Amino acid sequence: MRTTIRRTIQAALAATRPLRYTALSGEIAALVAAGRLIRTGDVLDRLGAGDLKDGYKSHYGKHVVKAFRAATGGEPLKVWAQHRTTGRYVHVYVYRPADEALFVGLASYGRTRHLVQAQFTEAA
Question: Could you tell me the sign of the dihedral formed by the alpha carbons of 37, 39, 40, 43, in that order?
Answer without folding.
Answer: negative
